[in-house]
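Hello everyone,

My group is preparing for a crystallization screen and wants a predicted model to guide construct design. The compound we'll soak is zinc ion. Before spending weeks at the bench, it would help to have a computed complex in hand. I've included the protein sequence and the ligand's SMILES below. Output in structure-token form would be ideal because that's what our pipeline reads.
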Amino acid sequence: MAKLIRCECGFVGRGDTEEEVIGAIRGHLASDHPVLLQSVSREDLLGWIEVE
Ligand SMILES: [Zn+2]
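Reply:
Good plan to model first. Here are the tokens for the complex, ready for your pipeline.
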């Protein structure tokens, strides 16, 4: 099963593990939403993870 996080802009970060998907969304936030990246914690990101 893949894990994923959907960004509000439509980007979907995917990974096989929580660490991978958090890494994917962090990379996306850093390039597209740097202000948002500063305001979300690791716990917030964990709460955004969906499993498909
Ligand atoms: Zn985004």
